[in-house]
Amino acid sequence: MGEEREDPQKIKRIAAAAYDYENDPRWADYWSNILIPPHLSSRSDVVDHFKRKFYQRYIDPDLVVEAMSTAGSSQSTKTSSSSSSSSSEQPRQRSTTTSGSATRNSGTSATGRSNAPPTNVRWDRQTIQFSVNAWVFVVAVLAIIPIVPGNLSNRAYRLSFMGTACSSLYSLYTLYGKPRAWNLQGLQVYFQSIIATKDFIYFIYCLTFVTSHLCLKFALIPILCRSLEHVAKFLRRNFTGSSLYRKYLEDPCVWVESNTTTLSILSSHAEIGLGFLLIISLFSWQRNIIQTFMYWQLLKLMYHAPVTAGYHQSVWSKIGRTVNPLIDRYCPFLKSPITAAQRWWLR
Questions:
Q1: Angle between the N-to-C axes of helices 198-210 and 306-330, in degrees from 0 to 180, rounded to the nearest 10
Q2: How does it sit in the membrane (predicted)?
């Protein structure tokens, strides 16, 4: 009976291991949103664990994913404990007259240290990203509230982009480091490794709007979605034992983490809509030709980058199915320029 119950799970694990993750755009987006230390992201067992979690979420919900092994952490704990015990034996060998009192004092302090709860928060990469993105989320919400004074709203609007740009730049630095050589070839190799990442795309996105005098609150939608995802994931992983989290924040965080695809689709709609808004703004006194050209180059990158290609290509296909029949019926003279634009877009 036990073997019969295990056989379906064994088959599901084999299917999960054989799944083609590299050709699924959802996997690239899923992996780019996982916040783990760089030394763990290169381990094959960690990657396989998150692949099984991805397969459970998107392909087969009946797959049972076991927790990751903590052998490495337990081994490091044993090593540290053995080293601390060996170091505590040295003063007992040196001093024989005061060994009793020294042992009692050291034992009391060691017990106090081991029993003390870790109340302080380590300022690692995840904590810094959480702090910056929580601040960005609050400032962005402040920027879109209609009752906020215009001066404060405009300042919050620009601070939101600046905070997201700093967060993306810090994430690129922690994951990819600095260029190995500060020459043309070294910079070219470095940018080729980061140009298709989500952090680089958001960094250029923020620079496009923070340096422009045109204030489009609509552009804050992708920023809000990104910061909301980061904040929800950090809270889910680090504050599950808090009664305040369980009472007020658990349900919203669970909804955000289970609807990351919906948030990505919303962001892609907003990003493409901004491109058409910038074209319309060219007929106003606030027009900025350079910004419009740069943003459409960024939209082209989003269309081809693996982390955003699935969502953007889906939106563009919907636009094509809606617009092409109208052009064929009412504006057939636009087919030639649209075909030329498509050739440039797909290059």
A1: 60
A2: Multi-pass membrane protein
What's the number of domains the chain is made of? 2
User: How does pLDDT run across 37-94, given as a tens digit for each residue?
Assistant: 666 777 788 888 888 888 888 888 778 888 776 544 444 444 444 444 444 444 444 4
- Is residue 133 one of the residues assigned to a domain? yes
Q: Under DSSP, is residue 102 helix (H, G, I), strand (E, B) or coil?
A: helix
CA 103 to chain centre: 49
- Half-sphere exposure of residue 283: CA atoms within 13 angstroms, side-chain side: 4
| b (16+ CB within 10 A) / e for 268-288 | bbbbbebeebbeebeeeeeeb
CA 225 to chain centroid, in Å, comes to: 10
Tell me what the mean pLDDT of segment 256-274 comes to.
Answer: 92
Query: What is the residue whose two structure tokens read 């996105």?
Result: 205
Q: Give pLDDT tens digits for 193-214.
A: 899 899 999 999 999 998 888 8
CA distances from 221 to 132, 264, 315 (A): 17, 10, 16
Q: Which pTM value belongs to this model?
A: 0.64
DSSP letter at 226 equals H
The DSSP call for residue 280 is H
For the record, the structure tokens of 156 come out as: 């919050």
Residue 233 has pLDDT above 80, yes or no: yes
> Quick check: is 332 in a domain?
no
- Regarding whether 296 and 150 lie in a shared domain, the answer is yes
Torsion of CA 173, 33, 262, 298, to 10 degrees: 30
User: Residue 143 belongs to what domain range?
Assistant: 125-308
Give the end of a domain, one of 14, 30, 58: 58
Alpha-helical segments (H) within the chain:
2-18, 25-32, 38-41, 44-58, 71-94, 99-115, 125-144, 150-176, 184-194, 198-210, 220-238, 243-244, 250-258, 260-281, 289-304, 306-330, 335-345
Nearest Cα to Cα of residue 271 among 242, 312, 323, 331: 312
Is 78 within a domain? no
